[in-house]
Amino acid sequence: MKRFVLLAFLICGFLIHACGGSNPPASSGPTTIVQPLALPGPYPVACSNVEQDFSLVAPGEEAKEYWEGFPSTSGAPQYMTDLLADRADTLSVTVTAPDNEDLYGSFAGEPVQFVVIVCYPTVANNPNADYPLPTGKVVPHMQNGPEPPLFADDTARYPVLAFSHGYGGSPISNDYIDALSWFASYGYVVVAPFHGDPRFSNLKIEDLSDAVKVLSHLSDFVALQALRPLSMSAALDLVLANPQYSDHVDATQIGGFGASIGGETLMLMGGAGLTTSLVFDWTRVTVDPRIKAAVGYIPYFGQPFLPSFGRDQHGLDGITLPYLAISGTADTTAPLDVTQEGISRLAGPGELVALVGVKHGLSQAAVNDIFTWSLTFLNAEVRGDPTAQQQLSTMASVEGGVDDYVVIPYNGP
After folding, report:
1. What CA–CA distance (Å, rounded) separates 329 from 331?
2. Packing angle between helix 261-269 and helix 218-241, nearest 10 degrees?
3. Which DSSP string corresponds to 205-271?
4. How far is CA 343 from the centre of its chain?
């Protein structure tokens, strides 16, 4: 009965919030309107091998359901590894979940495999063809077999970007492969695991019925969230130790970009405490000090009925990871006010930008806004670019696109 009453109370909070609005722009603060960065950037892009045999896709299924880890129509588990045509030359890592049932539930102590893709700036005359995907997208200049990557400058060391996609996505689903390519076109080596979230918890938080499912199966949802930062750190370990990449990346300049729950993943890598119970207890999952700064687009910081980082987001107290959150004012899955509460608790440089009218998902109208804000922040905090740092301190919005404004101003160097 107590559990039922608590569940009902939390659901009421969800319903009340769903009807709420967003805060208006502050009357004072940064005032400079900047021109959007061109997409793509100055570099051609190539990616590591993810060759697949699409004839292995079961009748009634789609390849992207394997990429994303959704179970088959019969309920059988399936994942990206089931389609790989060149396993030996596809990057992957195996993560063994720590023996902690509070965080990892039934997956505690179990090994889990994660496929990884890397995209990077390449030479203008890269001979490798784009690899077509059944969605109509392509993996640009994909490496074939064991051949090494062709970097734009073989003597340079490039900054690294840990890329964490949203729930139920993958690095090559929808517009994510475009996002990887755009970051790489600005000189980042982008490292992205296929999280395969539905392998752990086939749930969402988009409406009341989803909220009930999440609260009723919280241990699975906690395990999904806790495994994500571990897989991201393992993917970085893999690339930094791989002789094909290690001499071409700068291990002192590693940033992160996450969409939706991927934004939460990067914050967990910064040492944030994750909510583990319906009474908002929280536990630190990990800390990866290599991440110098991170950007979250429509970052999932939880809901009023279940904040991601403990009661009143206290799991973020003392966190020094520089973090830019870009939120939509019409987003009810990752509400702006919940994110604002979290960003306001950070002890390190933080900033919150609002995109007017944007819901949960990639807004095509806002693409230039998103990447101009993101690259400016990453260049400032990861590359230590003083020009970008100065621009952030005065930047109020990006010309064109959707209306955007600063909710919490940048307080970095």
Report:
1. 6
2. 60
3. -SSHHHHHHHHHTHHHHHHHHHHHHHHHHHHHHHHHH-TTTGGGEEEEEEEEEEETHHHHHHHHHTT
4. 17
CATH code for the structural domain at 2-19+40-408: 3.40.50.1820
Distance separating alpha carbons of residues 304 and 9, to the nearest angstrom: 11
Cβ–Cβ < 8 Å for 224, 262: no
Q: What are phi and psi of 87, to 5 degrees?
A: -60, -35
Angle at 307 between CA 366 and CA 347, to 5 degrees: 80
Q: Domain spans of the chain?
A: 2-19+40-408
pLDDT digits (tens), the chain, 413 positions? 434 334 433 444 444 444 444 445 544 678 899 999 999 999 999 999 999 999 999 999 999 999 999 999 888 899 999 999 999 999 999 999 999 999 999 999 999 999 999 999 999 999 999 999 999 999 999 999 999 999 999 999 999 999 999 999 999 998 999 999 999 999 999 999 999 999 998 865 554 455 566 666 788 999 999 999 999 999 999 999 999 999 999 999 999 999 999 999 999 999 999 999 988 999 999 999 999 999 999 999 999 988 999 999 999 999 999 999 999 999 999 999 999 999 999 999 999 999 999 999 999 999 999 999 999 999 999 999 999 999 999 999 999 999 999 999 998 87
